[in-house]
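anyone seen this seq b4? input:
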Amino acid sequence: MKKLIYIILFCAYALQAQQQKYILLDSITSHYKVKQYTLDTSPYGFKSTIEMYNVFDDDFLILISVLPDFQNLTKWEEIDIQQVQNNLLPAKDLFSKIRLRMLTSNPKDVIKVRLVKKEKSKYYAATRCLTESYYCRDFPREMQIATSDFIINTNQPITSVAQLKLAYKQVNGEAFPLERENADCSLQEYLKHIYLLNVEEKKGDTAYYFYKFADYFEKGVGSFVYIKGKGIVAGAYYNCFVRRGKHSPPLGSREKLTLKNIPESEELLLAEELK
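predicted toks r here
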């Protein structure tokens, strides 16, 4: 019986490895406009960096975030490129999922890849890679747009978290999902939205501050700053760094977590290049 369990586990891990998709950074930069930024994680209680890659294709934006591993704070590990050759995603297919989601509104139409970079003759894969896809558009104010968790509408009314909390409790009368003590609450799919919090001028650019109304541990970059032409230049990644012992849980994990595991700071990390 024990032997059978080991075989099943091995097959599961093998299947997962086979399904894991990789994409070469060089292939992305040769096909698309890319803006890269670096974030300092010190406000979250440990010294490291996050590498952000904004990939543009018309009104679509894919944000690839390379996160440090808690155990050794490394972000990249050497790989044998021949071993993953069959699992390399062509750059031309990078935006296929988000384009499909525009038609289906299916939340499962998301892309998950590990970024691979080449240095001299060696290849390195991101140890923890968060990939988020967005559609960026200025919609007329007269149109009520359901943004879900992937449409960045810069022309919507400003809504504070306090305003949203009041409105939500009038409808549901339940615990507000954006509060830390309610981190294990689930939000219905039709209520998910990306709200505009503020607009301000920043060194000659118009910066749009957004926050996601979504499940606490599944919203990825929970709030962010977006600048047209530059992409996402700041983000709150605190919910991606939840400690369990010395290790990080899987991104998007729904396992029961205690508040002491969550970084105290929910600060937006601004790109070092724009400070």
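The chain has one domain: 2-274. Residues 92 and 250 are 28 Å apart (CA to CA). kinda curious what u guys think
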